[in-house]
Design brief:
The protein is of the alpha/beta class. The chain has a domain at about 60-115 and about 160-200. It has helices at about 10-20, 80-95, 95-100, 140-155, 160-170, and strands at about 1-5, 25-30, 45-50, 50-55, 70-75, 105-110, 120, 135, 180-185, 190-200. The strands form two sheets. The chain has an eight-stranded mixed beta sheet with strand order 3-4-2-1-5-6-10-9. β1 (about 1-5), α1 (about 10-20) and β2 (about 25-30) form a beta-alpha-beta unit. The chain is globular. Residues about 35-50 and about 120-135 have low confidence and may be disordered.
Amino acid sequence: MQMQVNAPSTSLSRRLARRFPGLHLVVQLIKGVTDGSAENDMDNEHVSSSCITVTHRIPGTVQSITDAAVYIYHLPASASGPNVNAVVRAELQHYLGVLRVSGGVMLILTTRLLPDSSSASSSASGTGTGTGTGLVSKEVEATARARDLSMLQLSNEGEMELSELLAVIEGVKDGLGRLVMTNQLRAQNGLVVAVAVKYQS
């Protein structure tokens, strides 16, 4: 079973279901948020089909579904500042026990995160994984920084850097172990679009 947490809509799961019809997908929308992308016959409170179940959950509450093989976590729409870091840390804290017992993987989508300044280079190449630097072009970083500046000027909100997210992940622990990043997934322009996280004893 694969699960989306803090999802803005069911669109990602519906695309996955079309491509991989054998998957069982659970989507947790934020409590009180209507899925505007859903089909007209979908009930906003609870939707079941052959492979997709949609429910609602308040961020920061205990995760009741504990047997998913993969949890896909969507960062808050405005991912910047100490308050958001605390929200993300508190949310991840709820998954320590879940990932420890199930051995599952959490995939954190990072499409709205800024690249680290140290990762910029004069040219970017292909898709890839890993933690190396020099994978994001100066042009791509400049575009991301301009978007962040516009958000800051218009709404006084910015975007989290990748290094900030990794620091939050590394700080989530209990008496038996902690969360660790096991992989980074990159787009063709070199930007990290997701990080894979597991529990390590």
